[in-house]
């Protein structure tokens, strides 16, 4: 035996040893045929001894439905030298078809290519603090967190001199196909599709399911026509009616080397969200072309927005919230105005952009600090100077915001009773128990909390039943809609009565006319806010007295 042969055998033995520490079954193959097997071959593959597997094709180790997937795994190994965790069903023993995770390594030598596959039957879907979870059906990365992972890998590839971009794949009609096939058959399709997309990614891993039927792949010069053909052929084996439409397009990322990884991740997040939210029959090529410029534009906007936040380059505008009982200003809502961006820039669009790119918690904290500074300069013997700041549902899940806001309250104890918080529904809260814990911590510290935008989304009543708050602000569009339909008065009255029984006050937004004032008053609202009593202003003196105060002062006497 030559030194080269001994070295090759030693390396093979090492791979086998490493695999056995992780796996229940280890396979060594050459040219798609098993040359060595070890482990639980009986219960997993139904053979009396491991030697019986020598000469068996790799595709015969799995159920017929997964043979295409094993072929994709083999291609993945040849292209990238390794493969991460892919789920397949082994042929098993009797009626049992055990699922297993595969990892693999490809060893190149002068005598050919050897493939090592390790199978583990205890399935695990990564989802730890530093991992991105995988979709169980396809094995692809889940949408949450993929943008950050893709940004990190994109920059690493660029630094090593490799070109990579984002390939978008749309498989229209996939949901309808699933309804026809049933869960088991559709599971086979998704597992094979997932392996195919991973195999076409630049590193054999970085592919994700963005939404149902929509996928993102970090690729290097992807042959889009070939990719569409491969997916189409895969789907055609089960889609006898030919209703599924496949399309793919590339999104150019530009020069990622000059962009901070965090900013690039947020740019990708924004782009993938736009892709995921595209509805109906859309032109993917046109969408991708727009997104190519969108990524660069988004990154520029992110950097610009961060500059606004860190530099405090925005103003606080106030709008009064009036008590219907006394006719006095109960407090002001703090609203932002981005003067440096020009009059034509809508604050709503800027804030919405911050939410979509995950920057809103930084702005919310900066806004709270600016309002706290404004309050510190006002007389403390006047109850008029109470201000509510908005908090995105996203922000309260961010440790940076939570730690920052409670530190701000700790060093400014005088703000108790003068600062309020409005939790907005614009960014949906997923963990309501944690959200409620944050709210109760504020309330225990002496700060009132309002649930904003109530009635604007389907989750409003779920929020009200779980989150203990002091005030509910009825969304302005809901208030206006209630005035247009016959049942509107009854509906709004029922809402205010429900809140009253929960000991929660109500604020009606968008009260802009005397008629709408009378309407919400008749419906039992406790407070009102709207242009009837003044548009937002950076000058608090504009509300002394507030516009049309006689409408309520006269009634209050």
Structure description:
The structure is a single chain. This protein has helices spanning 3-22, 41-45, 67-80, 146-159, 174-181, 183-199, 224-236, 261-277, 284-310, 347-356, 360-376, 399-411, 432-444, 460-466, 476-482, 488-501, 514-522, 550-556, and strands at residues 25-30, 33-39, 82-89, 99-109, 112-120, 165-172, 207-211, 214-219, 245-251, 315-323, 329-337, 387-392, 419-424, 449-454, 471-474, 505-508, 527-528. The chain is an alpha/beta fold and 557 residues long. The chain folds into three domains: 3-120, 2-Layer Sandwich (Beta-Lactamase); 146-304, 2-Layer Sandwich (Alpha-Beta Plaits); 311-556, Alpha-Beta Barrel (TIM Barrel), CATH 3.20.20.450. The strands form three sheets. An eight-stranded mixed β-barrel has the order 10-11-12-13-14-15-16-17, surrounded by five helices. Strands 2-1-5-4-3 form a five-stranded antiparallel β-sheet, with helices on both faces. It has a four-stranded antiparallel β-sheet with strand order 7-8-6-9. Strand 16, helix 17 and strand 17 form a beta-alpha-beta unit. The longest helix is centred in the middle third of the chain and has 27 residues, at 284-310. Residues 123-130 have low confidence and may be disordered.
What's the CATH C level of the largest domain? Alpha Beta
Provide the CATH topology of the largest domain.
TIM Barrel
Instruction: Give me the CATH superfamily of the largest domain.
Output: EAL domain
Helix content: 40-55%
Query: What's the shape?
Result: elongated
* Domain module count: 3
Radius of gyration: 30 Å
């Amino acid at each position: 035996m030559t030194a080269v042969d001994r070295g090759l055998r030693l390396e093979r033995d090492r791979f086998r040893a490493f695999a056995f520490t992780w796996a229940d079954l280890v396979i060594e193959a050459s040219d798609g045929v098993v040359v060595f097997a070890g482990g639980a071959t009986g219960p997993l593959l139904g053979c009396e001894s491991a030697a019986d597997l020598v000469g068996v094709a790799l595709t015969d180790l799995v159920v017929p439905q997964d043979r295409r997937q094993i072929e994709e795994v083999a291609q993945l190994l040849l292209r990238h030298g390794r493969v991460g965790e892919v789920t397949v069903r082994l042929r098993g023993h009797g009626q049992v078809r055990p699922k297993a995770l595969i990892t693999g390594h490809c060893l190149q030598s002068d005598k050919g290519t050897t493939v090592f596959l390790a199978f583990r039957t205890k399935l695990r879907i990564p989802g730890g603090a530093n991992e991105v979870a995988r979709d169980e059906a396809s094995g692809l990365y889940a949408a949450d967190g993929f943008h950050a992972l893709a940004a990190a890998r994109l920059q690493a590839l660029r630094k090593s001199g490799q070109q990579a971009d984002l390939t978008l794949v749309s498989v229209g009609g996939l949901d309808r196909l699933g309804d026809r096939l049933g869960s088991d058959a559709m599971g086979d399709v998704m597992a094979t599709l997932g392996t195919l997309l991973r195999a076409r990614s630049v590193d054999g891993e970085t592919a994700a399911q963005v939404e149902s039927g929509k996928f993102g792949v970090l690729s290097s010069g992807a042959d889009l026509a070939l990719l569409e053909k491969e997916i189409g052929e895969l789907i055609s084996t089960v889609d006898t009616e030919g209703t599924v439409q496949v399309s793919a397009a590339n999104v150019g990322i530009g020069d990622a080397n000059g962009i901070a990884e965090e900013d690039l991740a947020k740019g990708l997040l924004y782009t993938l969200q736009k892709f995921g939210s595209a509805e109906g029959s859309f032109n993917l090529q046109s969408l991708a072309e727009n997104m190519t410029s969108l990524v660069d534009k988004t990154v520029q906007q992110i950097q610009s927005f961060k500059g606004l936040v860190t530099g405090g380059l925005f103003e606080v505008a106030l709008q009064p919230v009036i008590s219907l009982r006394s006719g006095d200003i109960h407090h002001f809502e703090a609203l932002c105005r981005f003067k440096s961006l020009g009059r034509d820039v809508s604050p709503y669009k800027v804030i919405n952009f911050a939410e979509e790119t995950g920057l809103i918690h930084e702005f919310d904290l900066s806004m709270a600090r600016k309002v706290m500074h404004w309050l510190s300069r006002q007389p403390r013997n006047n109850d008029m100077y109470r201000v509510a700041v908005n908090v995105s549902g996203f922000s309260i899940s961010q440790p940076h915001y939570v730690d920052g806001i409670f530190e701000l309250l700790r060093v400014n104890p005088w703000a108790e009773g003068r600062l309020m918080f409005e939790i907005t529904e614009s960014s949906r809260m997923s963990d309501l128990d944690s959200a409620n814990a944050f709210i109760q911590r504020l309330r225990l510290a002496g700060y009132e909390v309002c649930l904003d935008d109530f009635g604007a989304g389907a989750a409003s009543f779920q929020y009200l039943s779980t989150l203990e708050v002091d005030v509910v602000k009825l969304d302005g569009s809901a208030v206006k809609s209630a005035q247009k339909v016959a049942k509107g008065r009854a509906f709004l009255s029922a809402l205010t009565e429900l809140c009253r029984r929960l000991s929660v006050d109500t604020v009606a937004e968008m009260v802009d006319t005397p008629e709408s004032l009378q309407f919400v008053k008749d419906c039992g609202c406790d407070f009102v806010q709207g242009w009837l009593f003044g548009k937002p202003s950076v000058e608090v003196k504009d509300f002394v007295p507030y516009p049309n105060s006689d409408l309520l002062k006269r009634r209050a006497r």
